[in-house]
C-alpha cells in the first residue's frame, strides 16, 4: 500500500512540474486557440521548454499506473489532490503568480481533505478492483466527454464578450477536469491489463477494450483544450480546479464502475466521505472572476506646469 502512496506523491510532483513548465513556455508563444489545433501543436512542439513539461507529465502518467494497481480509486484521488500545494508553490516561484487569501484558505482545506483520506487507509484491508464492465464504462464516459467539450465551448463564447469580467478559468478547469476524469478511468482500466505473463494476450485484450481509445480521445482533446486555457488563465487556479474535478469524478464514478468497496469501519468511512465533501466545498467556493486591474491615473503632458492652489 505504501508503495502506492509514494507513487502517488511522485506523480503529483511530476504533474505539477509539467504544468508549470508548459505554462511558462506558453507565455512566450503567440496566442493559441482550440479553433486552430494544427497551429497550436506546431507552436508548442517547437518549444524545448514545453517538450520538457510534456515529458514530465508523461512520467506522471507512468507513476499513476503504479498507483492504480496498489491503491483503491477513492484513496488514490485524495492523495493526488495534495499536488495542488506544490503546484501553487512552483507557480509563485517560477511564474510569479500571486494567490489571494481566499485561494490560500482553499489550499489549506485541500490539505485537510488529503489528511482525512490518508487516515482512512489501512494496509491489508483495501480491495483493489481489476476490471469493470465495458458497457458501464462507456455509459459513464461518453456523456462526460460530451459535457466537457460543450462546457469548454460555452466558456469560449462567453470570454469573447468585450465587457465581461476577466475569467479566473474555473469554467475551463471544470471542462478539462471532466476529460481528465475519463482519462483517469481509462488509466485504471489499462493498469488492470498489465501483467508480467502472457504479454501478447494481455495486449490483445487491451486493444479489444475501450480504454486505449478513450485515452487517445482525451489525450488529443485534453492537450489542445488545456494548452489554450493555460495560456489565458493562472496555472495556480485553473490546475487546482481541473485536479479537483478529475479527482472527484474518478473517486465517485470510478469506485462505482469498478465495484470497489468503501471502508467498513465507520470512522474510516467518515474520514473518506468528509474529505471528498470538503474538496467539493472548496471547488464551489472558488471565485469565478479575477478583479479588473485598477485604471492608471492620467499623467500630465510633458512640460506642463503643475497647478497649485494659491
Overview of the molecule:
The structure is a single chain. 72% of the residues lie in helices and 0% in strands. It is mainly alpha-helical. The chain has one domain (2-285).
Number of domains: 1
Percent range for β-strand residues: under 5%
- Please compute the radius of gyration using only Cα atoms: 22 Å
Quickly give the structural class.
mainly alpha
Q: Average pLDDT, to the nearest integer?
A: 79
Order of helices and strands: HHHHHHHHHHHH
Which shape, going by the Cα principal axes? globular
Distance between the termini: 80 Å
Biggest sheet, open or closed, and with what strands and sense? none
Q: How many individual helices?
A: 12
Helical content (DSSP H or I, runs of 4+): over 70%
Regions with little confidence, pLDDT below 50 for 5+ residues: 292-298, 304-310
Multimerization state:
single chain
Number of strands: 0
Compact overview of the structure:
The longest helix is centred in the first third of the chain and has 26 residues, at 2-27.
Key attributes of the depicted protein:
310 residues, mainly alpha
Which SSEs are present, and which pair or pack?
Layout: H1 2-27, H2 37-45, H3 48-70, H4 73-80, H5 83-95, H6 101-119, H7 134-159, H8 170-193, H9 199-208, H10 211-232, H11 235-257, H12 266-285
Amino acid at each position: 500500500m505504501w508503495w502506492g502512496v509514494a507513487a502517488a506523491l511522485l506523480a503529483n510532483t511530476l504533474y505539477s512540474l509539467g504544468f508549470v513548465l508548459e505554462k511558462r513556455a506558453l507565455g512566450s508563444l503567440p496566442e493559441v486557440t482550440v479553433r486552430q489545433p494544427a497551429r497550436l501543436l506546431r507552436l508548442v512542439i517547437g518549444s524545448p521548454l514545453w517538450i520538457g513539461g510534456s515529458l514530465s507529465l508523461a512520467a506522471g502518467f507512468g507513476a499513476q499506473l503504479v498507483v492504480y494497481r496498489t491503491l483503491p480509486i477513492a484513496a488514490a484521488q485524495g492523495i493526488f489532490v495534495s499536488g495542488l500545494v506544490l503546484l501553487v508553490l512552483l507557480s509563485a516561484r517560477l511564474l510569479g503568480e500571486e494567490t489571494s487569501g481566499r485561494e490560500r484558505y482553499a489550499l489549506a482545506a485541500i490539505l485537510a481533505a488529503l489528511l482525512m483520506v490518508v487516515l482512512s487507509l489501512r494496509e491489508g484491508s483495501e480491495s483493489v478492483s481489476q476490471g469493470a464492465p465495458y458497457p458501464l464504462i462507456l455509459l459513464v464516459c461518453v456523456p462526460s466527454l460530451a459535457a466537457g467539450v460543450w462546457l469548454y465551448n460555452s466558456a469560449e463564447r462567453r470570454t469573447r464578450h468585450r465587457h465581461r469580467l476577466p475569467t479566473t478559468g474555473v469554467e475551463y478547469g471544470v471542462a478539462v477536469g471532466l476529460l481528465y476524469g475519463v482519462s483517469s478511468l481509462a488509466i485504471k482500466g489499462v493498469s488492470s491489463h498489465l501483467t508480467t505473463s502472457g504479454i501478447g494476450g494481455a495486449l490483445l485484450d487491451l486493444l479489444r477494450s475501450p480504454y486505449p481509445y478513450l485515452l487517445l480521445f482525451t489525450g488529443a482533446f485534453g492537450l489542445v483544450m488545456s494548452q489554450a486555457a493555460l495560456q489565458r488563465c493562472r496555472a495556480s487556479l485553473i490546475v487546482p480546479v481541473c485536479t479537483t474535478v478529475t479527482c472527484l469524478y474518478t473517486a465517485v464514478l470510478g469506485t462505482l464502475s469498478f465495484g470497489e468497496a468503501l471502508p467498513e469501519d465507520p470512522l474510516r468511512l467518515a474520514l473518506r466521505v468528509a474529505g471528498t465533501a470538503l474538496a467539493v466545498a472548496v471547488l464551489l467556493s472558488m471565485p469565478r472572476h479575477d478583479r479588473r486591474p485598477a485604471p492608471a491615473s492620467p499623467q500630465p503632458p510633458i512640460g506642463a506646469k503643475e497647478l497649485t492652489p494659491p
